[in-house]
Amino acid sequence: MVSITGAEVSKHNSKDSCWVIVHGKCYDVTEFLPEHPGGQRIILKYAGKDATKEFEPIHPKDTLDKYLPLDKHLGEVDMATVEGNGEEEELDDEEKARVERVSRMPPLSQCYNLMDFEDIARQTMKKTAWAYYSSGADDEITMRENHAAFHRIWFRPKVLVDVTEVDLSTTMLGSKTSVPFYITATALGKLGNPEGEVVLTRAGSKENVIQMIPTLASCSFDEIVDAADGTQVQWLQLYVNKDREVTKRIVQYAEKRGCKALWITVDAPQLGRREKDMRSKYDEQAANVQGESGDVDRSQGAARAISSFIDPGLSWADIPWFKSITKMPIVLKGVQRSEDAIKAVEAGVEAILLSNHGGRQLDFARPAIEVLVEVMDALRQHGYENSIEVYIDGGIRRGTDILKAICLGAKGVGIGRPFLYAMSTYGEPGVRRAIQLLKDELVMNMRLIGANTMADLNGSLVDTRSIGTHTTVPEDILSNTAYDRLVPPPFKSKL
Asked: pTM to 2 decimals?
């Protein structure tokens, strides 16, 4: 078959006829423009050009095969004829400085805690990737409070306990695992590492840590499942599509491929306003493609650009339908009050995740560790404490944070950003070291509080009297150093 030339592709550079090149193949996306979740603007920026660089970090490889009709797959492109192909991209001063810092990164062996990975990531990740991973909602109060809340809980350790043997293993949703934490679902892994989420899969497999597969992964679902070693437990995180047939197909395929639980995200009827992400996505050239019309969203950021399919109509009335389409345990991901925890038990779901979406949705939502105290009290009052498993995520950075959650009744905890930062800086070895650091901290601190197994952890080992006061806590130097502060818009550069 004759290859399409770059000159021919370049003729189709408008809203009326829009061709793009992805991975050396040409696609006619003219009719798809109004349907693109990220809007028309970003596609039109690459109309008649090679869009691979923009496409790769945020789309699974099989995206075009799944969503674009075959007659819009126009064929191979002779990349030698594409203008600019093979040319080195000229780096600006900021990017040159970043690349130089990458060359001077500390050895992995000098990362002693999870905050180390965050601080190194802040200085070495590309601006857009860092902004997407690190951003929180609005003023980022909840995002920061998620971590700070753990500092309001103190231990009441036992002494003279034989702690020669310490066992971190536990069972979550019926699956045995080596530790009481899992790799939670985080979107767009290829922003931080060109291999994407499969890096987390491989590290989790080798360390016997459960992975939750995200709906908005950069890798395809099959790539992530295939990267597991065959024994690793994987769960599916689900953003519910407005088209329930699409949702049903995703859920049942995940079950067929061996996923052991379905985690339905319930705290995101729409994605929150994450200003770091929005500011990093502002691109003057792209914003002007369609002129200055008021209906162009110039700075929605990566989060909103990929999430328009999410159904804001999801409600309690949908739970029986989910139970009818799968045998997987169902978890409601994003419960934030005790009343909803009680409803969840009565709806017959197997577990809930107390979460505010990493502080990325509603600012001033309470930290999950604080909600945990309220929820467990309510469950005990109703006699439901053994009727449902409770998990939390958000702000967990130390083994002590995990132990506090387990003592207060959580079955396990989810960790997201720290593993993304470890993956983005040191790849698979970085993720494994992050996991190993947590394991070491857990063993040490279980000995220090007088516990041998997860079953020994209970409320008598913690003092939570200050959990809901929201007053000053001891300054957290590592967190404050790693935190990337919000900033106002910059002035334009001098001409």
From this structure: 0.88
